[in-house]
Write a structure and sequence with these properties.
There is one protein chain. By secondary structure, the protein is α+β, with helices and mostly antiparallel strands. The protein contains 3 helices and 3 strands; from the N terminus they run H-E-E-E-H-H. Helix content is about 40%, strand content about 30%. It starts with 11 loop residues before the first helix and ends with a helix. The relative contact order is 0.12.
């Protein structure tokens, strides 16, 4: 038995609709690549941190204390008080004095507090 092949020819309107659909899909994919290279690439390059050699210039307590909640297991929870410490460093690349911060979030939330030396004070308790 031979298979019957049905040849279907699209009308001109259907043909234009198919071409338009394919053009829109292809242009969408191309625009995603263009936006990816033009918009995301600089943003990702800004996130890359470079290593720097820093020398500690001074360390001082600013007299404030913060409360830290910690957990070390299912039955181990508590709070501790830690002093706020400011650490000034000299960046060897730019030869500039700067206040050391743990991360950008800490810099934005409390710019005058440099670092929280939890381990140092936890070991002394």
């Amino acid at each position: 038995m031979a298979k019957l092949r049905v040849a279907y020819e699209y009308t001109e309107a259907e043909d234009k609709s198919i071409r338009l659909g394919l053009f829109l899909i292809i242009s969408g994919v191309v625009s995603l690549f263009i936006f990816g290279f033009c918009w995301l690439s600089p943003a990702l390059q800004d996130l890359q941190a470079t290593a720097a050699n820093c020398t500690v210039l001074s360390v001082q307590q600013i007299g404030e204390v913060f409360e830290c909640t910690f957990t070390c297991g299912a039955d181990c929870r508590g709070t501790s008080q830690y002093p706020c410490v400011q650490v000034y460093v000299n960046n060897s690349e730019s030869n500039s004095r700067a206040l050391l911060h743990s991360d950008e979030h800490q810099l934005l939330t409390n710019p005058k507090e440099a670092t929280r030396l939890r381990r140092l004070y936890s070991n002394q308790e």
